[in-house]
Every structure is written in C-alpha cells, then in structure tokens.
Specification:
About 55% of the residues lie in helices and about 0% in strands. It has helices at about 10-25, 35-50, 65-90, 90-105, 110.
C-alpha cells in the first residue's frame, strides 16, 4: 500500500484494536499469513452452519439465535480478513474497488443481466471489455 492510499478509518480502528488484543496476549507469533488464512476459511465455513437445512436459506427463516450466530461469524470472518490484510500490507478498500472494476469488465451488464453463469460460459462478443462500471473510471 502506498503512502498516498490509506484504508478506511473504520478498518484502521478495527486493525489497531486487533493488534492490541493480540499483543496483550502475546499471540502475534501465531498470526502468520498461513494461520490467518486457515482461520478465515474455518470461520467462513462456520458462517454456513446456521443456514444448514433451511428450505431456502432466506433471512426470514433464521430465528433470533441463528441470526445472532450469523452476525458473530461474519464478525469473525472480518476479523481474520483484517488481520491477514494487515500482515500482507493490503488495503482492503482499494483491493475491493479494483476487484469490482475487474468484475464489471468480466461481467458487462449487456451480456449478463439476469444470468448468473461464470464469465467464461458466455458467448464471446467483439466489444467484450469495452463496457465498464459507472462506479469506477
């Protein structure tokens, strides 16, 4: 991340709180990129558990306990993602904006509207990549 680019102040606050939390417990040595990526994967999988066996997996099928479980699992995912980004010096906001732009190029509205196939499953058009997102220059 260059000095010109700074992550969102909210993410910086979370990052700093997580750094302090780990430092107070002397856990930094365990927070390698591999371990954080592994923990992130585990927490993302745990996010599925409250939805398991629901008919549609819609929010109105979740009871209060399941909704709270989803909320906390999402917090765990964000926690490990922020910690991993910190270790790898990645600006999550900039990376996300770049990825949205790349996805807009892969999935032009004129080609994919109402269709959720993977980008390489669509027939090729000569103008592919010419349509960009209105969110980014």
């Amino acid at each position: 991340m260059s000095k010109d680019q700074q992550p969102s102040s909210d993410l910086l606050v979370i990052r700093d709180r997580l750094r302090q939390f780990a430092a107070e417990r002397q856990w930094e040595k365990f927070h390698t990129p591999k371990n954080l990526a592994s923990a992130l994967s585990v927490e993302a999988a745990e996010l599925l558990e409250p939805f398991q066996w629901l008919e549609q997996g819609a929010v109105d099928e979740l009871g209060p306990e399941q909704w709270a479980a989803v909320r906390y699992e999402m917090a765990d995912v964000l926690t490990y993602l922020v910690m991993l980004a910190d270790k790898l010096d990645i600006d999550l906001i900039a990376a996300t904006n770049e990825k949205i732009h790349l996805n807009a190029l892969k999935y032009p509205v004129s080609k994919v509207i109402g269709d959720a196939r993977k980008y390489n499953a669509y027939p090729a058009h000569p103008q592919d990549g010419a349509e960009s997102s209105s969110l980014f220059p």
